[in-house]
Amino acid sequence: MPCKHNKFSAIFTIIFNFLIPDAKISKTLPQKCLAMIQLKPSTEKLFYFMTLISGLLVALSPFAVAQGETSDSAIAKFNWFQAIILGMVQGLTEFIPISSTAHLKVVPVVLGWGDPGVAFTAVIQLGSIAAVLWYFWSDLSQITRGMITAISKSDYQSHDFRLGVGITLGTLPIVFFGLCMKLLIADLDNSPLRSVGVIAGASIVMALLLALSEKISTHKRSFEQLSWQDGIFMGLAQSLALIPGVSRSGSTITSGLFLNLERATAARFSFLLGIPAITLAGLVELKEVVDMGLSNDIIIPLIVGVISSGFFSYVAIAWLIRYLQKRDTWVFVWYRLGFGLFILGSIFIKAN
Fold first, then answer.
1. Gap between the Cα atoms of 263 and 31, Å rounded
2. Which of 11, 48, 100, 142 lies 20 to 30 A from 193 at CA?
3. Cα–Cα distance measured from residue 203 to residue 320, given in angstroms and rounded to the nearest whole number
4. Model confidence at 285, in pLDDT bands (50, 70, 90)?
5. What angle do CA 30, 32, 38 make, to 5 degrees?
6. 5 lies in a domain?
7. CA distance 334 to 332
8. Who's near 162: CB < 8 A, 6+ residues apart?
9. Rounded Cα–Cα distance for residues 133 and 104 (Å)
10. What is the CA radius of gyration of the chain?
11. Contact status, residue 76 vs residue 297, Cβ threshold 8 Å
12. HEC string of 239-276?
């Protein structure tokens, strides 16, 4: 009997059934339909292919910079297709420790679209925050209920209370330093801080730190052993992500490994810790975009970018946690090292 589901349903199921085996959507089609979609590449090969392609694009980035620098006003220049691609780049790189800011700076410039700017980048991060809220909703609910119960019973040693305090205190450094940058740097989009040279240097340094943390970490501390002190330390590391190329998830996962956390635990807490920071950044920039006046040329790309970012962020979160349960982080070390060296090499070639 032929499958009654349309091609779109089959393709949608391929993505979720393969990248996220535990997703409920994978169970919505009957077995005969699922049997039709078994010919698909492995998640790992898909990831390596995508990182190879983005790495090649990055290698060409300094040659494309001359195509023009843009500011927040460039939001109106993106069409829906470009917004989908930028949302995909944001979603796949926000939670994988390879720096979403760096890729959103470099990839669109290489493609000739110009730098999307801080505002567009921050607003489409709202899709990422929606994805992480969706994925960790049960964890967040448990932490919230646990904190309320702990306060009512004065049980300040409760695991949920310690987690909640750690996330709160860990958010303060990036808020403080982020406000300082916004107040002290008038034209942040076009400042030297967002140059490809800074991105290259930050990528290489963070690759070396991730390698060091991978080597010396015991990888033995579980999620249940997290403390509020871990939140503060990882929060300080998170503030380094204000420098393009550092990577918010990269800096927090690296610091988590230095604290001897299990790899998957470091990633999981990194994502929870990032929820307030990403949300605040997105809402602040969204307000500025609204104040600029929202024409259809701005609204449509933003909405499409947010949706695309949300979808690919969910895929990236699920993939990374499952990956780190069984694998180490060396693939990200080598990718980030190559990312930075390619940029520096192409800058040197261009200069000569």
1. 35
2. 48
3. 19
4. confident
5. 105
6. no
7. 5
8. 226, 227, 228
9. 22
10. 20
11. yes
12. HHHHCCCCCHHHHHHHHHHHCCECHHHHHHHHHHHHHH
- Provide the strand spans (E) within 278-333: none
Cβ partners under 8 Å of residue 212, min gap 6: none
Distances (CA, A) of 27 to 14, 30, 270, 320: 11, 7, 30, 22
Is residue 6 in some structural domain?
no
Q: What is residue 223's DSSP assignment?
A: G
Contact 226, 166 (CB under 8 A): yes
* Widest CA span in the chain: 68
Q: Distance of alpha carbon 97 from its chain centroid, rounded?
A: 7
- Parent domain of 279: 68-351
* Residues facing residue 221 across a β-bridge: 261
Closest CA to 83 of 109, 55, 118, 121: 121
Cα separation of 94 and 247, whole Å?
8
- Give the DSSP H or E segment for 30: none
pLDDT band at 26 (very low <50, low <70, confident <90, very high): very low
The packing angle between helices 296-324 and 263-292, to 10°, is 180
Q: Cα separation of 134 and 247, whole Å?
A: 22
Q: Which of 29, 22, 38, 12 is nearest to 318 (CA)?
A: 22
Q: Bridge partners of 261?
A: 221
Phi-psi region of 158 (alpha: psi -120 to 50; beta: other; left: phi over 0): beta
Is 51 domain-assigned? no
What is the torsional sign of CA 16, 322, 239, 93?
A: negative
Cα separation, 115 vs 92, in Å, equals 18
Instruction: Report CA 208 to chain centroid distance, whole Å.
Output: 20
Q: How many structural domains are present in the chain?
A: 1
Structure tokens at 72: 């927040």
In a domain, 39, yes or no: no
Residue type at position 71: S
Report which of residues 71 and 290 the model is more confident about: 290
Residue 50 pLDDT > 70: no
H and E: helices and strands count for the chain: 15, 0
Report, as an integer, the average pLDDT of 300-326.
93
> What's this model's pTM, rounded to 2 decimal places?
0.76
Runs of H (alpha helix) within the chain: 7-19, 31-34, 43-59, 61-64, 80-94, 100-110, 117-135, 137-153, 159-184, 196-216, 228-239, 248-258, 263-292, 296-324, 330-351
C-beta separation of 206 from 160 below 8 A? no
